[in-house]
Write a structure and sequence with these properties.
single chain, alpha/beta, Dehydroquinate synthase-like, alpha domain, 2 domains, binds 5,6-dihydroxy-NADP, binds zinc ion
C-alpha cells in the first residue's frame, strides 16, 4: 500500500425526514443563496421541506443550473453573490447543482483574472478559499456530497473540465433516501452506473497489496448490483433506496482510493463524449469502461481477474477467456439497468473519435494509473465501442 493522508470533514446527515434539521446545520447569521436546477425540487416536495426547515433564514434563490452545469450560468450567480454580499451557499439538487455550487463558491473568492482558469489550469491554479457550502442531495450518483470535486461545462467551447479542492467540500450534506422516490428510471440507472464506475476507477488498476481497500470496493460493487435493481423495480423500497444512496456516497468520498493507484481515464474520455454530444455522464462511462478493460487487459490483468472472480464468480477458462467473460458480465449489468454501451447506440460516429483524439493530442494529456494512455490508445478504446 502507498503512503497516504486522509481527511474528510463533511458532516453527513442521513435518513428519512432529515431535511428538517437544516436550520441547525446552517449558521443563522448568514445571507444564503439557495441553488437549484431545472425545477424537480418543486415537484417532489423537496423545496417545500427545505423552505419549512429554513424559515427565518435570509435566503436568495438561484435556479436554472442545468445538468452538466454551465460556466456561463454559474457566473451569473457569482455576480449576484458579489452584489448582494451573500456569504453561504445551500445546494438543493443532484450532482450538477452541487458541482455548480462548488464552482460558484470558489469563483466568488478567486483572486486571479479569469475564474475559468480554476478549471482550465486545474493542477496549476489551486483553489485555497471558497464560500461555505451546505447540500441537500436529491440524486445519489456522483459522490459530490462528500468530496471536493466539481465538473463544469463551458457551452461556448464545448469543454467539460474538472477541478478539486478541500475548500469546496460541503460543510454538511443531507442525504434523505426518500428523494429517490421521484427519480425517473434514466437518472436512477445513471446513478447506479456512475457509482459503479467510480469504484472501478479506484480498484481496477494493479495490485499494491491493499486488501482492505479491495474488499471495501468489492462490497460497494456487490451492494450496487444487489440494491440498484431493487430500487429500479420499486422506487418506494426505502431500505434499498438507503443502501443505494450510501453506496454512491462511499464510492467517491476518498476512502477506497487511499493508498492505491487510481485510473480515471474512463471519466476523462467520457467527459469528451458529453462535451461533444451531450450524452449523460453515466452513459459515457458505460460506453468507455468495457473498451478500457479490453484495450488494457494486460496492464490490468490481475485486478480484472480478481474482479471477475469475486464479483461475477468467473473462475474457469484461460486468462483471456476469463477477461472476456468479465467484460461481458459488466456490459450485461449496465444494459440490465437500462444503459446502452456502444457508441452507435447514441448516434456517435468515427468522426467524433477523431475529434476527441485530436483534443487529447493538443492538450498533451496522459491518462490512466500509469499515465501511459496517450491519444493512440484513446482512439483504440473508442474504436472498440463502435
Ligand atoms: O435539474 P433538476 O430539475 O433538479 O432535474 C435533475 C436533472 O434533470 C434530475 N433530478 C435530480 N434529482 C431529482 C431529479 N428528478 C427527479 N427527482 C429527483 N430527486 O436529474 C437530472 C440530472 O441531474 P444531475 O444533477 O445532472 O445528475 P447527477 O447527479 O448524475 O450529476 C451529473 C454531473 O456530475 C458530474 C458529472 O460530470 C455531471 O456533470 N460528476 C461529478 C462528480 C463529483 N463532483 O465528484 C463525479 C462524477 O464522476 C461526475 O463527473
Ligand atoms: Zn462519474
Amino acid at each position: 500500500m502507498y503512503n497516504f493522508e486522509f481527511k474528510n470533514p463533511v458532516k453527513i446527515i442521513f435518513g428519512k425526514g432529515q431535511i428538517s434539521k437544516l436550520s441547525k446545520a446552517i449558521p443563522s447569521d448568514r445571507k444564503i443563496m439557495l441553488t437549484y436546477g431545472g425545477g424537480s425540487i418543486f415537484k417532489n416536495g423537496v423545496y417545500d421541506q427545505v423552505k419549512k426547515a429554513t424559515e427565518g433564514l435570509n435566503i436568495v434563490e438561484f435556479g436554472g443550473i442545468e445538468p452538466n452545469p454551465h460556466y456561463e450560468t454559474l457566473m451569473k450567480a457569482v455576480e449576484i453573490i458579489k452584489a448582494e454580499k451573500i456569504d453561504y451557499l445551500l445546494s438543493v439538487g443532484g450532482g450538477s447543482v452541487l458541482d455548480g455550487t462548488k464552482f460558484i463558491a470558489a469563483a466568488v473568492l478567486y483572486e486571479g483574472d479569469d475564474p475559468w482558469d480554476i478549471l482550465a489550469k486545474s493542477g496549476k491554479v489551486f483553489v485555497k478559499k471558497a464560500l461555505p457550502i451546505g447540500a441537500v442531495l436529491t440524486l445519489p450518483a456522483t459522490g459530490s456530497e462528500m468530496n471536493g470535486n466539481s465538473v463544469i461545462t463551458r457551452a461556448e467551447t464545448q469543454e467539460k473540465l474538472a477541478f478539486g479542492s478541500p475548500a469546496v467540500m460541503p460543510n454538511f450534506s443531507v442525504l434523505d433516501p426518500e428523494v429517490i422516490f421521484s427519480l425517473p428510471d434514466r437518472q436512477l440507472a445513471n446513478g447506479i452506473v456512475d457509482a459503479f464506475v467510480h469504484v472501478m476507477e479506484q480498484y481496477l488498476t494493479y495490485p499494491v497489496n491493499s486488501p482492505i481497500q479491495d474488499r471495501f470496493a468489492e462490497g460497494i460493487l456487490h451492494t450496487l448490483i444487489e440494491e440498484g435493481p431493487k430500487v429500479l423495480a420499486d422506487r418506494t423500497d426505502y431500505d434499498a433506496a438507503a443502501n443505494f444512496m450510501w453506496s454512491a456516497t462511499m464510492a467517491l468520498n476518498g476512502l477506497i482510493g487511499m493508498g492505491v493507484p487510481q485510473d480515471w481515464a474512463t471519466h476523462m474520455i467520457g467527459h469528451e463524449l458529453t462535451a461533444y454530444h451531450g450524452i449523460d455522464h453515466a452513459q459515457t462511462l458505460a460506453i468507455v469502461l468495457p473498451g478500457m478493460m479490453h484495450v488494457r487487459r494486460k496492464e490490468k490483468q490481475d485486478k480484472i481477474l480478481q474482479y471477475g472472480e469475486r464479483i461475477w464468480g468467473i473462475k474457469e477458462g484461460s486468462v483471456d477467456e476469463r477477461i472476456d467473460q468479465t467484460i461481458q458480465s459488466t456490459i450485461k449489468f449496465f444494459e440490465s439497468v437500462g444503459i446502452k454501451t456502444k457508441l452507435p447506440d447514441y448516434s456517435v460516429s468515427e468522426e467524433t473519435i477523431g475529434k476527441i483524439t485530436k483534443r487529447f493530442e493538443t492538450r498533451g494529456s496522459r491518462l490512466g494509473e500509469k499515465q501511459d494512455i496517450g491519444p493512440d490508445l484513446v482512439k483504440e478504446i473508442l474504436e472498440d465501442r463502435l
